[in-house]
Design a protein that fits this description.
The complex is a heterodimer of chains A (195) and B (625). By secondary structure, chain A is an all-alpha fold. Chain A has a domain at 65-195: Cytochrome c oxidase, subunit III, four-helix bundle (Four Helix Bundle (Hemerythrin (Met), subunit A)). Chain A is 73% helix and 0% strand. In chain A, helix 2 runs antiparallel to helix 5 (168-193). The longest helix of chain A is centred in the last third of the chain and has 32 residues, at 127-158. By secondary structure, chain B is mainly α. Chain B has one domain (31-236, 292-534): Cytochrome c oxidase-like, subunit I domain (Cytochrome C Oxidase, Chain A, Up-down Bundle), CATH 1.20.210.10. Chain B has 18 helices and 2 strands. Chain B has a two-stranded antiparallel sheet. In chain B, a hairpin with a 2-residue loop joins strand 1 (267-268) and strand 2. Classes of the chains: A mainly alpha (195), B mainly alpha (625). The interface between A and B is large, with 46 and 68 residues.
């Protein structure tokens, strides 16, 4: 082997890379986006074919939208507090976010109740009602996964695992939670414009 | 030459790498090692291929010999063989449905992408393992769970799903429609949900790995085309499988909860169903939004494998590396905007049909670029006809002959005659089924030495190739004529029509050829398992190839490289470079070591580097020497 005779080897560039777990989360978000893109497209296509009952969305959706925006704010508070190693505030903000997350879910459930009171059922009423239940229900399922993530971060904040040197989990949680909030706002606006 | 040197360089083990004590369960069953997971996918896929192939043999018997008495199958099929010895017509439908489902999803998606993406991505980009080994393991076990459920559905009393692999409602949505739409359909849907989860877990992992875990120097312009293909396949899967999930979810609601997403105005035995306002066409849109990209999920990995094998065995750089990447990107994008060409006769607006026709025909361009590049790579190469090479060339042949009929079918006017005939069956079995299957086979023959450290028997490989290659053409070439004549697919029997009787001979011929081709696969199976134990020990780099996987030890341990991960200095296609000593220069050899073969711009690059290095006292990568 003649390798020893040559003392200079060109430098190989380190390829750009992200944290694999964070990257995987973004990819997961892409799949969720595609799922809802499919649902909302199906909604529009079906609506275009007629026989579509128009009804008012429950006003509770406005309240719930407020709750989810507020929870995004408290989530961000938790994030900045963790960056500053302000662990007391992290716990408080995480608690608030988790409670608001639950409140949103309860609110959505109540909104379904309002729909039922208006004789709009998942089965048997017009297809537009079925679509509303499917879209809000699918979002709620994802939101439940988000709340579980919140609880995980909350628990690890009590184990001193969330601080400025250990932000991966927190950052992923923030990303996912903001995404879920944004997704709801998109869905709500979509439903307002196309119901 | 320098392969061994690269392997032995770096005596101390990498920090991240620990040698775990492995027992049977962690090594062979719940393994998180990408190589073992790849092999698990391969073996499961092979098992599925056998089952799927066997199902096709049964229905080919029915199509070729409608009068045949099949009592001898009764021990296996039980009451699906009727009292008079003929096949139950509903079971025939179940057979074609399950053949399609198994081959498309379980063999050519999981068996192909699952095997080679898992096995090759970390080895060829220079990574110790996937981004998440645990997710990778989950991906296999979700696939396994899905397999078990799908397999179970074959044995239940009412039979498996029977509405075609596309499971169009209302046939699939109403349990009272046919027997297969009962429990069989429910199991089909449950199995597919797990399959989608498995595919997404796998796909997220492949993409995250390719983007984030490449070794030093492995830029995107130095990636082997296999990795490009696996990467784009994963991207397609990530974008299209959620849509199938949405379609399946709404179908589940229609079936089990009584909603009317896809159902409307249906009368069964004079009685109206309560479902109102649904649209079965909606399902077709959602399904084919996955269904068409799925074709490329199946095909792209095979094309990537072929690129690698053809370049290696032609001893020439791949012709048009960048054109190959751009055409794969083009196919990726186009695959999402052509779905409605499956729906030309569904009542689609003819104007919309013209748009989809136009977009569909554009796919011919990147496909032709790829074919051209394969042929020009072969042109004047020092071709070595290994079994893998033969299968790769076979793939190119099928890609051409099957692709040409795609141009006919893409025309919405001609599709009125050809839709749902055997012409379609012949088309996609050549261009998607056989081509991808040949890519899979090529991959197995080519990377078997890396998987098991043994060589497969080449003579048996040649026999397997020629029997399969000739067999596939004997099956699918005559099928075009049957289709042009108007013979529709998915019918138990068409012999009541006068015109169809002139095709009895041809149908018999096709069936005999299909059975022979199926039997020929046992040559491969024997070769595979015999070589695994009794094969000749493989050399480290049996095909004298450039890519990184051949720099690992014969049987790489968990972590792939015992020492440091090798660094990459060049693209993977430096074959027969003028001036070079050997006819291949592995990716790990720096330009500074090959002054005799460097091109002017490469030499200039080395000189500049050398000047920079002279300024710094520290010499780059000195610790390697």
């Amino acid at each position: 082997m003649s390798i020893d005779k040559i003392n200079t080897v060109e430098e190989a560039e380190q390829p750009l890379s992200m944290h694999p777990q964070k990257f995987a989360l973004w990819l997961f978000i892409v799949t969720v986006v595609m799922l809802f893109a499919a649902m909302t497209s199906a909604y529009i296509v079906r609506q275009g074919e007629g026989n579509w009952l128009i009804f008012d969305l429950p006003t509770l959706f406005y309240v719930n939208s407020g709750i989810i925006i507020l929870s995004s704010a408290t989530m961000h508070w938790a994030y900045t507090a963790a960056q500053k190693d302000n662990l007391g505030q992290v716990k408080l903000a995480m608690w608030l976010t988790t409670v608001l997350g639950f409140a949103f879910l309860v609110g959505q459930w109540e909104a379904w109740g309002v729909l039922v009171d208006a004789d709009l059922f998942f089965v048997g009423s017009n297809i537009s009602a079925s679509f509303l239940y499917v879209i809000t229900g699918l979002h709620a399922v994802h939101l439940i996964s988000g709340v579980i993530f919140l609880i995980i971060v909350l628990i690890s904040s009590y184990k001193y695992k969330v601080h400025s040197k250990n932000m991966t989990r927190m950052e992923m949680c923030v990303t996912y939670w903001h995404f879920l909030g944004g997704l709801w706002i998109y869905l709500f606006v979509f439903l307002l414009l196309n119901h | 030459m320098s392969v061994a040197a690269n392997v032995s360089a770096g005596a101390h083990a990498h920090d991240e790498h620990h040698e775990h004590k492995e027992n049977f369960i962690t090594k062979y069953i719940f393994s998180t090692d990408h190589k073992m997971i790849g092999k698990q996918f391969l073996l499961t896929g092979m098992l599925w291929a056998l089952i799927g192939g066997f199902l096709s043999v049964i229905f080919r018997l029915q199509l070729g010999f409608p009068e045949m008495k099949l009592e001898w199958l009764r021990p296996l099929l039980g009451e699906w063989i009727q009292v008079d010895g003929s096949l139950d017509p509903e079971f025939y439908l179940a057979l074609v449905t399950m053949h399609g489902t198994i081959m498309v999803f379980f063999v050519l998606t999981a068996g192909l992408s699952g095997t080679f993406s898992n096995f090759l991505i970390p080895l060829q980009i220079g990574a110790r393992d996937m981004a998440s080994g645990f997710m990778n393991m989950l991906s296999y076990w979700f696939f396994f769970l899905s397999s078990v459920i799908m397999l179970t559905s074959l044995f239940i009393e009412t039979g498996p799903a029977a509405g075609g692999w596309v499971v169009y409602p209302p046939l699939s949505a109403l349990p009272q429609a046919i027997q297969g739409s009962g429990l069989g359909m429910t199991l089909w849907l449950v199995a597919m949900v797990f399959f989608i989860v498995s595919s997404l877990l796998g796909g997220i992992n492949y993409i995250a790995t390719v983007i984030n875990l490449r070794t030093k120097g492995m830029s995107f312009s130095r990636l082997p085309l296999t990795i490009w293909a696996f990467f784009l396949t994963a991207v397609i899967g990530l974008l299209s499988f959620p849509v199938l999930f949405a379609a399946a979810l709404l179908l589940v609601f229609d079936r089990s909860f009584g909603t009317s997403f896809y159902l409307s105005d249906i009368y069964i035995q004079g009685e109206a169903l309560p479902n109102m306002g649904g649209s079965p066409i909606l399902y077709q849109h959602l399904f084919w939004f996955l269904g068409h990209p799925e074709v490329y999920i199946v095909l792209l990995p095979a094309l990537g494998i072929t690129s690698e094998i053809i370049a290696t065995n032609s001893r020439k750089p791949i012709f048009g590396y960048k054109a190959m990447i751009i055409s794969m990107l083009g196919i990726t994008v186009l695959s999402f905007v052509v779905w409605a060409h499956h729906m030309f006769v569904s009542g689609l607006n003819p104007f919309l049909g013209s748009i989809f026709m136009f977009l569909t025909l554009i796919i011919a361009v990147p496909s032709a670029v790829k074919v051209f590049n394969y042929l020009t790579t072969l042109w004047k190469g020092n071709i070595i006809f290994t079994p893998a090479m033969l299968f790769s060339i076979g793939l190119v042949s099928f890609f051409i002959s099957g692709g040409l009929t795609g141009i006919f079918l893409g025309n919405s006017a001609i599709d009125i005659q050809l839709h749902d005939t055997y012409f379609v069956v012949a088309h996609f079995h050549l261009v998607m089924g056989s081509a991808s299957f040949f890519g899979l086979m090529a991959g197995v023959y080519h990377w078997f030495p890396k998987m098991f450290g043994k060589m497969m028997d080449a003579k048996l490989g040649y026999i397997h190739f020629w029997l399969t290659f000739v067999g596939v053409y004997m099956v699918f070439f005559p099928m075009h004529y049957i289709g042009i004549a108007g013979f529709p697919r998915r019918y138990y029997s068409w012999s009541n029509f006068e015109f169809a009787n002139s095709f009895t001979d041809l149908n018999m011929f096709v069936s005999v050829a299909a059975i022979l081709t199926f039997v020929a696969q046992f040559v491969f199976l024997f070769n595979f398992f015999w070589s695994m134990y009794r094969g000749k020990k493989a050399p480290l780099n049996p095909w004298r190839s450039n890519t990184l996987e051949w720099t690992t030890p014969l049987e790489p341990v968990h972590g792939n490289w015992p020492g440091e991960i090798p660094t990459v200095y060049r693209w993977p296609y430096d074959y027969s470079k003028p001036g070079a000593e050997e006819d291949f220069i592995p990716q790990t050899v720096p330009y500074s070591q090959t002054p005799e073969s460097n091109l002017p711009h490469e030499q200039q690059f080395v000189d500049e580097e050398r000047e920079d290095a002279a300024d710094d006292v520290v010499v780059a990568n000195e610790h390697k020497h």
